[in-house]
């Protein structure tokens, strides 16, 4: 067993999420010292909410099993935590592929409306994925790190890890500083999908919640058409992931159609508590209707199964983005990881993998380069490029999830209606998240829109 490490941390993680926790574990396995801690909010998926379920490849379990072996080899049985009953605390137990509570198949389907009926195509299958509540997994990683610290303090030696909320002022003493899930200035990506909308911010609105119904071990991702009152076609993405062998409870995330407005009626002025409460009711209704379509079950059955509290259906806002710059100032230079490095569509399979299991693994490679005598500045630059490439892969792979079917026949009035609906949803999503909300958009002048539509129709020969 090695002697205690010096008190200066080799790694400092600010605003740590899943990527930061895994980075600290790889740092510990490399014989280095780390400091960091979860953010002010409880560990979990910061975009999809506290009840979010993740589907992970088997490689995630292999990473945790490798960490168990490396930690035990370096520090010996007495240098790693044990559970309250004295049994070994293995990180890999959180994602045991032999346990039917965690494993099951996954499928992705795409639907098209052809000759008055939906045609379903299987676009992807995965025989085995690991289904895990994001909050439980991340809480377990941080609890393990805290147990390592407690073990060292009981032994009267300097702790190898320090689990707290360090400040940027602690950075100059660390060789490597990571910024994970800390506040950053966000620069939403503007994409042109060639669908007639022109350059458009890659933003979507989702409703995520939990149902107390069994859905079996199958995790499903669905891309399906949605039609507005004029029978114009849009796309919605939906995900359902069940927990345990029976798939109960089930976590669902469903996309709000691009045209949809949660209209609380004239009695509830936008921005008032009454309007927010009315919108919550409408959000729940849309969630239940989408769940009934996804699961093929009656709405009444699912409405009775909707959970309340933290698991209630919530309106969420998500965008593909890259950081304009970090929130850090002063002498500390940090490498952004996790959601601080940018992000793509939150329902894409790479969402749960990129931060903890790709960015985290890059930190292992960093310490390998340092052990081989690499220059720290060059090694940090390599780490930054690798993390950026991992994030770009997720963004690029999910860019199409922000696209809609071609809308070349739309006129300026149609796009104005869509912009209004988007701004309307963003206002209420911000209120639901407890963050400063942008002003609710002014009501559209329907008469002016109709007149503009007639003028454009006269110019182009009668298209909408």
Question: What can you tell me about this protein's structure?
Answer:
34% of the residues lie in helices and 23% in strands. It contains nine helices and 17 strands. The strands form four sheets. Strands 3-5-4-12-13-14-11-15 form an eight-stranded mixed sheet. Helix 1 (18-29) runs parallel beside helix 6 (351-371). 41% of the residues are buried.
Helices and strands in order, then pairings?
Blueprint: E1 11-14, H1 18-29, E2 34-36, E3 53-56, H2 58-75, E4 103-114, E5 117-133, H3 134-154, E6 161-163, E7 176-180, E8 184-188, E9 190-191, E10 200-201, E11 203-211, E12 219-227, E13 233-242, E14 250-255, H4 273-295, H5 299-303, E15 314-319, E16 321-326, E17 335-337, H6 351-371, H7 376-398, H8 412-433, H9 446-460
Parallel strand pairs: 1-2, 1-7, 2-6, 4-12, 7-17
Antiparallel strand pairs: 3-5, 4-5, 8-16, 9-10, 11-14, 11-15, 12-13, 13-14
Helix pairs in contact: 1-2, 1-3, 1-6, 6-7, 8-9
């Amino acid at each position: 067993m090695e002697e205690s490490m010096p008190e200066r941390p080799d790694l400092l993680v600010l605003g740590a999420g899943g990527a930061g926790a895994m980075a600290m574990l790889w740092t510990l396995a490399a014989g280095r010292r780390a400091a960091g801690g979860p953010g002010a909010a409880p560990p979990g998926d910061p975009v999809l909410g506290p009840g979010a379920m993740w589907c992970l490849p088997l490689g995630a379990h292999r990473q945790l099993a490798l960490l168990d072996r490396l930690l035990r080899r370096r520090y010996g049985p007495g240098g790693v935590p044990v559970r309250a009953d004295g049994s070994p605390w293995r990180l890999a137990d959180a994602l045991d592929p032999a346990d039917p509570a965690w494993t099951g198949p996954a499928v992705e389907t795409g639907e098209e409306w052809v000759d008055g009926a939906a045609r379903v195509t299987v676009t992807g299958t995965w025989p085995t994925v690991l289904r895990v509540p994001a909050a439980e997994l991340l809480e377990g990683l941080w609890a393990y790190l805290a147990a390592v610290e407690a073990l060292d303090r009981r032994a009267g030696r300097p702790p190898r890890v320090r689990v707290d909320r360090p400040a940027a002022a602690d950075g100059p003493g660390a060789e490597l500083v990571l910024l994970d899930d800390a506040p950053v200035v966000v620069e939403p990506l503007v994409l042109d999908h060639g669908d007639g909308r022109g350059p458009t911010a890659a933003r979507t609105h989702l409703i995520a919640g939990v149902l107390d119904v069994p859905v079996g071990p199958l995790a499903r991702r669905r891309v399906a058409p949605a039609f507005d009152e004029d029978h114009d076609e849009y796309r919605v993405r939906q995900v359902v992931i069940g927990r345990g062998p029976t798939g109960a409870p089930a976590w669902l995330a469903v996309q709000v159609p691009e045209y949809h407005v949660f209209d609380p009626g004239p009695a509830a002025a936008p921005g008032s508590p009454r309007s927010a409460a009315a919108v919550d009711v409408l959000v729940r209704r849309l969630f239940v209707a989408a769940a009934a379509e996804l699961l093929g079950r009656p709405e009444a059955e699912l409405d009775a199964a909707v959970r309340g509290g933290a698991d209630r259906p919530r309106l969420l806002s998500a965008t593909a983005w890259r950081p304009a710059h970090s929130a850090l100032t002063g002498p500390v230079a940090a490498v952004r990881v996790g959601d601080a490095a940018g992000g793509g569509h939150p329902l894409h399979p790479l969402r749960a993998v990129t931060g903890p299991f790709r960015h985290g693994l890059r930190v292992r490679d960093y310490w390998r380069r340092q052990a081989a005598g690499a220059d720290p500045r060059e090694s940090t630059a390599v780490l930054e490029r690798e993390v950026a490439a991992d994030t770009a892969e997720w963004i690029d792979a999910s860019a199409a999830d922000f696209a809609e079917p071609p809308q070349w026949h739309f006129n300026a009035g149609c796009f104005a209606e869509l912009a209004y609906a988007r701004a309307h949803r963003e206002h209420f999503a911000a209120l639901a998240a407890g963050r400063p909300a942008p002003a609710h958009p002014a009501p559209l002048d329907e008469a002016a829109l109709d007149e503009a539509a007639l003028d454009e129709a006269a110019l182009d020969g009668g298209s909408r």
